[in-house]
Amino acid sequence: MIIAAVVVALGGLAFVVASRSSDKFAGLTPLPIGEYMRNANSLSGNSYKLEGTVGAKARYTENNGQIIIVEVEDGGSIVDLGVYVPVDLYGTNLDRGDNLAAQVEVRAGGILALLEIR
To answer: Other CB atoms closer than 10 Å to residue 63's CB: what's the count?
Structure first.
């Protein structure tokens, strides 16, 4: 019985580890939307997990990348956040209505910049 209990415990542990590792942004703190809206500059230099829906896409320019609008939930209401998509990430296919899970960085001036998406 002890061996069976150990096997079950190890199986459960393996399941937990496997499910956590499938979320590549699990170790990141979610973007504190309220704090970001109040004073984005206070978060400059930090990276966060951002989850939401692509609401709109602005025009892409070859040298500058693109700005997308990501709709996120904050306390039961929807907030639109502008997120800069650098040229090197533009090849990722982001369309209006797509669910987005990403690592973003708050840059100088409170600009959200996409670092990596899943």
So the answer is: 5
Contact, 71 vs 53, CB < 8 A?
A: yes
**For the chain, the helix, strand and coil percentages under 3-state DSSP, each to the nearest 5:** 30, 40, 30
Q: Which residue has the tokens 């959200």?
A: 112
Q: Domain 28-117 is classified in which CATH homologous superfamily?
A: Nucleic acid-binding proteins (2.40.50.140)
Answer for the pair 57, 82: CB distance below 8 angstroms, yes or no: no
- Compute φ and ψ for 100, nearest 5 degrees: -125, 130
Q: Could you read off the pLDDT of 85-101 as tens digits, one per residue?
A: 988 876 667 889 999 99
**Could you report the per-residue pLDDT of 28-61, keeping only the tens digit for each?**
999 999 999 999 999 999 999 999 999 998 877 7
